[in-house]
Amino acid sequence: MKFLKFLLVGIVFGIVLVKSEAVSWYRIYEMFRFQSFHMYGIIGTAIASGILFLQLSKRSHLKSLNGAEIFVPKKDKGFTRYIVGGTIFGLGWAMVGACPGPMYVLLGTGIYSMFIVIAAAVLGTFIYGLLKDKLPH
Amino acid sequence: MELLLNPWPWYLSGPLIALIMALLLYFGKNFGMSSNLRTMCAIGGAGKYSNFFKMNWRDYSWNLVVVLGAVIGGFIAVHFLSNDSGTNLNPATVSELKSLGFSNAGKTLVPEELYGTGAITSLKGLALLIVGGLLVGFGTRYAGGCTSGHAITGLSSLQRPSLIAVIGFFIGGLVMANLIFPLIF
Questions:
Q1: pTM for this structure?
Q2: How far is CA B113 from CA A131, B100, B118, B179, in A?
Q3: Between residues 61 and 80 of chain B, which touch chain A (CB distance below 8 Å)?
Q4: For residue range A94-122, what is the model confidence (pLDDT) as tens digits?
Q5: Which of A101, A114, A136 shows the shortest CA–CA distance to B149?
Q6: Residue A75 distance to chain B (closest CA, Å)
Q7: Helix axis angle, B160-174 relative to A25-32, nearest 10°?
Q8: What is the distance between the alpha carbons of residues B24 and B90, in angstroms, rounded to a whole number?
C-alpha cells in the first residue's frame, strides 16, 4: 500500500512522457537543432507551473503527507561539477535521446535494446562513485 | 477519444510533468529520476568499492517503484492510448536526418538505425549506445541530477546550481547534435 502511490505516479509519468513525445529521440534531436518549439514548450510550461506550485505551497505552508512543510532540498554550492557534469550528461542525452526517466519508459514501450543504455548508465554512475574524490566539484 | 489518442500538446504536457513533481513532493519525496541509478549500484554491492554507495538503499526503494511504474506507463501509453499518428516533426528535421542516414524519422519513438537489431549487433551501433549510456550515468551523478532533478525541480525552486547544470546539458546536447553527429553518421 505504501508503494502503491509511487507505482501510480510512475505510471502517470510514463504515460505523460510518451504522449508528450518527450521520450522521442527525434524530438530531442529537433530541440538541439532549434528546429521545433515543442520540447522548449514542454520544459518551459513545466518550469512555470512548478514555480507557481512551489510559491503557492510556500505561501500557504502546504504540508506533505508526513506532516512537514513541502520543501525542495537545496543543491550544494559549486560551479565545476554542474557545468562539466551537465555537459557530459548533455552529450549522452543527445546521443541516445533519453535521460534517466525516459530510458525506463522506452523500455516499457517495447524498445528492449534500451537495456544496453540502462546498464551502461548504471556503470557510468558506478565509475563516478569510484572517481568522486579525485574529481573537482 | 481522438484527443487522448493523438499526441498531447506541449502546453498540457508541461504542467502534467510539474504535477508529477508536486505529487512526489507531497508524498515527502523528490522528483529526481537519476537517483535510481545510484540505488541500483548500492543494491549491486557497489558500497564495497566506494563510500558514495554506502547507503541504506531500502530508504530509496520507492524510487525503484516509480521506475517500475514508468515502464508500465510506457507500455500502457503505446498499447492503449496511441494511434498511428507518429511524431509531427519539422520537415527540415526529417530531410536533414535522411541525409545523415536516418530514414522514417518520426514514425517510431527511437530510430531503428540506433536501436534496431541491425544496429545493436554491429560494433559501431553497440558502442554508440554504451558510450551514450556511460555519459548519461556519469554526467548525471557528477552534476547531481538530470532533466527532472535539475531542469524541472531545480529551476522550479529557483536554484542557481541547477541553472548552471541545465546550461551544461545544453552545451553538451548542442555539441553532440550539431558538431559530433555529422562526424559519426
A1: 0.96
A2: 33, 11, 8, 19
A3: 61-62, 65-78
A4: 999 999 999 999 999 999 999 999 999 99
A5: A101
A6: 7
A7: 100
A8: 34
